[in-house]
Amino acid sequence: MITDYNLPDNIVDILNANKREDDDTFQELIRQGGYVPPHINLLIDAISALSMGKNILLKGPTGAGKTKFAETLSSLFHQPMFSINCSVDLDAESLMGFKTLAYQDEKQKIEFVPGPVTSAMNDGTFLYIDEINMAKPETLPLINGVLDYRRTITNPFTNEIITAEKGFNVIAAINEGYVGTVPLNEALKNRFIVIDVPYIEGEDLKQLIESNTKLTDKTTIDLFVTLSTDLIRAVYQGKLAEDAASIRALLDACDLSAIIPPKRAILRSIVDKLDEEREREFVKNLADTLF
Ligand SMILES: Nc1ncnc2c1ncn2[C@@H]1O[C@H](COP(=O)(O)OP(=O)(O)OP(=O)(O)O)[C@@H](O)[C@H]1O
Ligand SMILES: [Mg+2]
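Above are the sequence and the magnesium ion SMILES. Below is the predicted complex in structure-token form.
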């Protein structure tokens, strides 16, 4: 795994100054790193913003490593990270928690089970909000409150006012252009430092394939790097849907190619996920010319 980023001294100092002290709470939520940045500035900017308590928004296509990037920040800051996935059925309870009946000395009492937002704020950890543009309009005011610079919200279920502990930080991700997503509401976007997360290419991608997949054959790895560049170009030119260039799918194809022929691996991992025949033919032709 890639852990040595050669960060500038001032950024290493910032990380050391903001690292969470070792305690036993939520150790299992400290994530594993491994993100390979297309440029070191992505990491520098994210670390700088988080160290100042600013929210960051990772914006990029599917399979570009946004979640991996957030996990890497959790690992670098040694901060546990709660996470929320903003599907359409995300409601206030799945953010804040819920009330339930519990027993104490055989007596019934109402207990509040904290959700990811309350836990992250009370414990001063990171909070990852995935696909934040998928949140329902009714849920947005709650999320806006969490992002507010005052870092204070009222828990609608207990009426308790929660002020975030030091260390609380929000990292959100959006997949712009993804089917089913709505453009990010301006008030929401306004509360973030935005970091574009593009697909990695060339040497960086080669390094990632070597360290993260079962494929070892150098020539085949080079061909996959070329295939990825061609796919990304075709997406930019509008010839292919965005997910055709997903690094996630490419890594799957590389893994399978350690056992089965690359062309079949590409078929299973990339081609057969595309909706239009024209697109499938396009990628098959690309694979035929390379492999
Ligand atoms: N730059 C990168 N560095 C490290 N891993 C990467 C990178 N790009 C893609 N990957 C790998 O590709 C896979 C998908 O990455 P990840 O889940 O972080 O993407 P994502 O941008 O969050 O996608 P989605 O929008 O679909 O949630 C993971 O296995 C991840 O390790
Ligand atoms: Mg993700």
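The chain is about 40% helix and 15% strand.
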